[in-house]
Specification:
CATH class of chain A: Alpha Beta
Strand content of chain A: 15-25%
Radius of gyration of chain A: 21 Å
Shape of chain A: globular
Number of domains of chain B: 1
Number of strands of chain A: 12
CATH superfamily of chain A: P-loop containing nucleotide triphosphate hydrolases
Distance between the termini of chain A: 31 Å
Radius of gyration of chain B: 22 Å
Largest interface: A-B, 36 and 21 residues
Order of helices and strands of chain A: EEEHEEHEHHHEHEHEEHHHEE
Number of domains of chain A: 1
Number of helices of chain B: 12
Structural class of chain B: mainly alpha
CATH topology of chain A: Rossmann fold
CATH architecture of chain B: Orthogonal Bundle
Strand order of the largest sheet of chain A: 6-7-8-3-9-10-12-11
Oligomer: heterodimer
Number of helices of chain A: 10
Helix content of chain A: 25-40%
Distance between the termini of chain B: 13 Å
Shape of chain B: elongated
CATH topology of chain B: MetI-like fold
Largest sheet of chain B: none
Strand content of chain B: under 5%
Order of helices and strands of chain B: HHHHHHHHHHHH
CATH architecture of chain A: 3-Layer(aba) Sandwich
Number of strands of chain B: 0
CATH class of chain B: Mainly Alpha
CATH superfamily of chain B: MetI-like
């Protein structure tokens, strides 16, 4: 019997009902997340990659409790973190925190940095008075700012500094899990490296577990221990970062890694953004004509198969050789 | 410079009107109701009567000073009621969404579809004339714009990182609405509110004109205007000065609101420092 992982996502699905196109039209459902299984061990960084609309952010929001799952479970050390047995908002805050993508929208423009950070300590009754201010000052120093920045308003900071503040806020309650939703994609490349290094330092010193969501493969490769590749709401490949980047198996993973320098040159044509509402039956990976998906395989038929140590790939739409038929 | 000018002039006008209303009992040269003298009716401005007299020979300056009490009370208090109702409904509708949002939206649309003056008229007809009924009637009928603004601003704020972050930090919904959303929508609500004070002052005038607002011998800028309607050729000052009083007051509130909005914006605050 192994110990329950720090965080476990079991068969998670999130569906959104879309308005009908005509009053008597078909009921349309967007399968944002469609049967995702993932787990995070202590001190580990799980990277989730995929293109816009593949469900990676929705997965993160569900972990944070900002989005109710349609089905499936999220477990924290074996205890439910979603559904009827889930802890309240305050309890959950001590478990997981989130760093948001847009550093400009993630700070209240009418609160000083200090009061944003202090209010959390007060709410959870962690510290009061001068002890609380000391904690805030410590945290600001820890993320590379100076204690007197606490008196300032968000608009007085640069994008990189704001992201540091966003990290400070996420760490104020000493959470075990940090969800990083595209933490550097809104920043300059030169600043990106600083923030990535800060995040890696913090992970080590505070023994944090990360769920890092990104479409930037180089960032994911640099930070993650394991990588999950998501496509149309499902995990299509999962494994150690080295395995994923050295032996990408699923055609979509290959496509992603191959497309880093220039997607159009690789494919010889523009792919456009696929429409996640209208997924052709049995053709989960249809928009890319350079890859031949397994035609006719139903959803049930596709499953994650272990092809190497801790390296999983979704079978039905992954291998184009006839041998791989189920 | 622009910022200080708006705020200073607006505040000066509003304070002037406020002082006039508060000290009417001391600085008004005549009693606004009892000093009626048909012998001195329709006198032009100047001399003993600063702004002339009306059809019943009452001093217009004194009546304007006393009328300011009614106009300010009705305008400010009813608009405060409106703003509170509109903001509370708008924020909660935008924040929670779902059936509550549908309900509030429907209610807002109904309120916008009924002319608010007619609705106020109906309430006044039930409650009878008087200051208290005016406050209730005007305070319950003009919140829909505030509600709309508050709701749409809340919708756009709700998905922003800092509101989500407050949720993940464990703050309650009520706390988030109060500390994260309300301060960020105060600007537009304040501006709508100041415009609403003008609307309420005009609505009071209209209701008084129809005889169900402030009862006639008591002066209000509204019934002064309607009394002067018949004398517009013979004694235009009887209409001009109450009208001017309304104009100055509404202008003052608008400038004040503009200035306050800029002042409340932290971007402005530090640019000056």
């Amino acid at each position: 019997m192994t110990v329950a992982p720090l965080l476990e996502i079991r068969d998670l699905s999130v569906h959104f009902n879309l308005p009908r196109l005509t009053p008597f039209g078909m009921r349309r459902i967007l399968h944002a997340v469609d049967g995702v299984d993932l787990s995070v061990k202590e001190g580990e960084c799980l990277g989730i990659v995929g293109e816009s609309g593949c469900g990676k952010s929705t997965t993160a929001l569900t972990v944070m409790g900002l989005q109710e799952p349609s089905s499936g479970q999220i477990l924290y050390r074996g205890q439910p973190l979603s559904g009827p047995g889930a802890p309240g908002r305050k309890e959950r805050a001590r478990i997981a925190q989130m760093v948001f993508q847009d550093p400009y929208a993630s700070l209240n423009p009418r609160q000083t940095i200090g009061s944003t950070l202090l209010s959390q300590l007060a709410l959870h009754g962690i510290a009061r008075g001068s002890e609380a201010s000391d904690r805030v000052a410590d945290m600001l120093v820890r993320v590379g700012l100076s204690p007197d920045h606490a008196k300032r308003y968000p608009h007085e900071f640069s994008g990189g500094q704001r992201q540091r503040i966003g990290i400070a806020r996420a760490l104020m309650l000493d959470p075990e899990i940090l969800v990083l939703d595209e933490p550097v994609s809104a920043l300059d490349v030169s600043i990106q490296a600083q923030i990535i290094n800060l995040l890696m330092d913090l992970q080590e010193t505070l023994n944090l577990s990360y769920i890092m969501i990104s479409h930037d493969l180089s960032v994911v490769e640099h930070v993650s221990d394991r990588v999950a590749v998501m496509y149309f709401g499902r995990v299509v490949e999962l494994g150690h970062w080295h395995a994923i980047f050295s032996r990408p198996t699923h055609p979509y993973t290959r496509h992603l890694i191959g497309s880093v320098p220039n997607a159009e040159a690789v494919l010889g044509r523009s792919r456009g953004v696929p429409d996640p509402v209208a997924i052709p039956e049995g053709r989960r990976f249809a928009p890319d004509i350079s890859v031949r998906p397994e035609a006719g395989a139903s959803r049930e038929a596709s499953s994650l198969v272990e092809i190497g140590p801790d390296h999983f790939v979704r079978l039905a739409d992954s291998i184009s050789s006839p041998k791989a038929k189920r | 410079m622009q910022l200080r000018f708006n705020l200073t002039l607006g505040a000066a006008l509003v304070i002037a009107v406020l002082l006039g209303a508060l000290t009417a009992g001391w600085i008004a040269p005549f009693d606004p109701v009892m000093d009626a003298d048909l012998m001195s009716s329709e006198l032009p401005p100047g001399g003993e009567y600063l702004l002339g007299t009306d059809g019943q020979g009452r001093d217009i300056w004194s009546r304007i000073l006393y009328g300011a009490r009614v106009s300010l009370a009705v305008g400010v208090i009813s608009q405060i009621i409106n703003s509170c109702i509109g903001t509370a409904l708008g924020i909660s509708a935008g924040y929670f969404g779902g059936w509550w949002d549908d309900l509030v939206n429907g209610l807002t649309n109904v309120m916008l579809a009924i002319p608010s003056l007619v609705f106020a008229l109906a309430i006044m007809a039930v409650l009878g004339p008087g200051l208290a009924s005016l406050l209730i009637a005007l305070g319950l009928t003009n919140w829909s714009w505030t509600c709309r603004i508050a709701r749409s601003s809340t919708l756009s704020l709700k998905s922003q990182g800092f509101v989500q972050a407050a949720k993940t930090a464990g703050f309650s919904d009520l706390n988030i609405m109060r500390t994260q959303i309300l301060p960020n929508i105060l600007g537009p609500v304040l501006v709508i509110g100041t415009l609403g004070i003008g609307t309420a002052i005009l609505a009071e005038a209209a209701l008084s004109f129809l005889g169900i607002g402030i009862k006639p011998p008591q002066p209000s800028w509204g019934n002064m205007l309607s009394d002067a309607r018949e004398l517009i050729r013979a004694a235009p000052w009887a209409a001009i000065f109450p009208g001017l009083a309304i104009f100055v007051t509404v202008l003052g509130f608008n400038l004040l609101g503009d200035g306050l909005r800029d002042r409340l914006d932290p971007h402005m605050r530090t640019r000056k420092a």
